[in-house]
Design a protein that fits this description.
3-stranded antiparallel beta sheet; elongated; 18 helices; 7-stranded mixed beta sheet
Length: 403
């Protein structure tokens, strides 16, 4: 069986993460994702940010499986070349600030005149409408503004960001979903459409049930560290050599835990006999458990939890994650061969679909596919490619040998 998105072509004008991660997922599902870059390349190529053997780890991760075509969209011939590519494409994704696409003459209204079926998705920090539409946005800015930082961190401590660039990644994921939904909608009902994806909207949505609870009760979620406001025990505990999370909120798990550590008295103690009592007496319950767990190693506690059917896990660092037998068995460590970096190990999209294996394709060199894409999709000859390159409309590794 072929790739799910085989035959789908996406032109990606995205930079760094928010505008590229959605394309990465689409490429993993088999779409032909053509990365349209300026002569200087995507900012994510800067090897001073997350440097790895002369490249940036951001670029190597976010652009695997894509093709790189260099076009100067401010050059008339470069822009016309882009229009011609749009005529052959299904979708265009960008993460410019609001108004930039219109100023370049390549917004949805302009592109649908060349391809009425085109789908466009713009990922911005604060969206294309509203009083903050022009506000500069980076992941940290959006994490702060969205409320996530306010209740992330230790109780009584300062706010903390999520370690991964959550706002950027969420914007990319929702961009991917927007394109998939628009592709299906076009198949069912016809016509292209435009998607307005806001990183802020994405994170406000991901406030999930805490957001709903506040909207209906007025309660404000507070910092709990690894603990849970409504469940005990549900947190990380220190061991002799690390930390382990224990999640024994359900009564059967609580009984299993009490029996496993020889504290049968806690099962019937009015301070800990059910979750409501344990939440009301959090300090007592956590203190009793912490004293026991502190005498054990991480391996001993983790093994006990698994043996006694109690939800929990060691707090792994990245080395432990990628060396883990289960993570490897799930195919979450793969590699591709890069022309200059060599072997690049990476974690793929978590997609597991029958009769389909994810491709292991490298992140492209700048302009690596300019000549081949223009030849294959637009029928340009080597001389025509060379003429466009000489005019500065495009950028190629080699106008002749690239064909």
């Amino acid at each position: 069986m072929g790739a799910m998105l085989e035959g789908v072509t996406v032109l990606e004008l995205g930079q760094v993460i928010a505008g590229t991660f959605g394309g990465t997922i689409l490429a993993d599902m088999g779409a032909e994702v053509i990365k349209i870059e300026p002569h200087r390349g995507d900012t994510a190529r800067n090897p001073q940010i997350a440097p790895l053997r002369g490249e940036s780890a951001i670029h190597l991760f976010m652009n695997r499986g894509k093709k790189s075509v260099v076009l100067d969209l401010k050059n008339e011939r470069g822009r016309e070349t882009f229009y011609r590519l749009v005529e052959t494409a299904d979708a265009v994704i960008d993460n410019f600030r609001p108004g930039v696409m219109a100023r370049l003459g390549i917004d949805h209204e302009a592109l649908k005149s060349r391809n009425p079926q085109i789908i466009t998705v713009s990922v911005t920090g604060f969206g294309e409408t509203g009083p903050l539409r022009d506000k500069a946005a980076y992941d940290l800015v959006v994490q702060a503004y969205s409320g996530h930082m306010d209740y992330t961190g230790e109780a009584g401590g300062p706010p903390s960001r999520v370690g991964t660039p959550l706002a950027d990644l969420a914007g990319g994921i929702y961009a991917c979903i927007s394109i998939l939904g628009a592709l299906l909608g076009r198949e069912l009902h016809g016509g292209g459409r435009h998607g307005d994806v806001s990183m802020l909207d994405s994170l406000v949505s991901l406030l999930a049930y805490d957001g709903l609870d506040h909207l209906n009760s007025g309660r404000v979620a507070t910092r709990q560290g690894t603990a849970h406001a409504h469940m005990v025990p549900w947190q990380a505990f220190a061991t002799r050599d690390g930390h382990v999370v224990v999640v024994a909120r359900d009564e059967k798990f609580w009984r299993n835990l009490c029996e496993a550590v020889g504290r049968h008295d806690l099962i019937d103690d009015p301070r800990s006999r059910d979750n409501a009592a344990r939440v009301a007496n959090r300090g007592f319950v956590v203190g009793e458990l912490a004293a026991v767990f502190a005498t054990m190693t991480t391996a001993e506690l983790s093994d006990m939890l698994d043996r006694c059917d109690i939800p929990g896990a060691p707090v792994n660092d990245m080395a432990a994650v990628f060396a883990d037998e289960h993570v490897q068995a799930r195919g979450m460590v793969r590699s591709y061969a890069h022309p200059t970096v060599g072997e690049v190990r990476y974690q793929p999209s978590p997609l597991k679909l029958s009769d389909w294996d994810l491709p292991d394709r490298h992140a492209p060199l700048l302009g690596e596919h300019t000549a081949s894409v223009l030849s294959e999709r637009l029928g340009l000859s080597g001389d025509e490619v060379a003429a466009l390159a000489a005019d500065g409309a495009i950028g190629v590794l080699d106008p002749l040998s690239d064909l």
